[in-house]
Specification:
Elements (H helix, E strand, L loop, with lengths): L4 E3 L8 H7 L2 E7 L2 E7 L2 E6 L2 E8 L4 H8 L2 E6 L5 H9 L7 H5 L3 E4 L2 E4 L4 E12 L21 E12 L1
Antiparallel strand pairs: 1-10, 2-3, 2-6, 4-5, 5-10, 6-9, 7-8, 9-10
């Protein structure tokens, strides 16, 4: 993490709504000796149970889901706009079909055993605390269910931010 400086989660710069919803992020995890990543635009940052947390949602058919399920930790990495094409590729190609990380040109590194990308402007190392499948009976706004034509409801993860880095 040569150019990245460790900070406390509450010192992270930037607007989480902008960073996640508009700029996107990568969710990256390890399963055995393999790593996979996916681009995500749904999630959030905040505080839960007195801990700084990130939450992400992953559809169960996504290959990265298997990796997040198999690991106690995952990373969230945020990039500047010059990586938009790379993030788009990593969000549309499947690691089941090709070595998309290698093809992306990004440099894989790890903190402890949690993979992340060195080109990121911010890196969050997250330890899973909670997991639950979205239950459509709990949607207060019934229009939300239109996001799930295949009834492939996201798995919701809440994870403690155990390390945070930024440029």
């Amino acid at each position: 993490m040569a150019d990245l400086k460790q900070v406390k989660p509450e010192q992270l710069s930037g607007n989480a709504v902008q960073k996640i919803g508009t700029d996107w992020m990568l969710v990256t995890a390890r399963k055995g000796d393999q790593v996979n990543t996916m681009t995500a635009a749904w999630g959030g940052l905040g505080v839960m149970w007195g801990k700084p947390v990130a939450f992400v949602v992953i559809r169960p058919q996504r290959y990265t889901y298997e990796f997040v399920e198999a690991s106690e930790t995952f990373s969230l990495t945020f990039f500047d706009d010059s990586f938009r094409e790379t993030l788009n590729y990593l969000g549309t190609a499947s690691g089941r079909d090709e070595d998309k990380i290698s093809k992306s040109g990004l440099t894989l590194a790890a903190s402890q055993d949690t993979p992340y990308f060195t080109e990121a402007n911010q890196v969050l190392i997250c330890r899973k605390l909670y997991r639950q499948t979205f239950d459509p009976a709990c949607f207060i706004d019934p229009a939300i269910d239109r996001n799930y034509k295949e009834k492939d409801y996201h798995i919701h993860y809440i994870a403690e931010i155990v390390e945070a880095y930024q440029r």
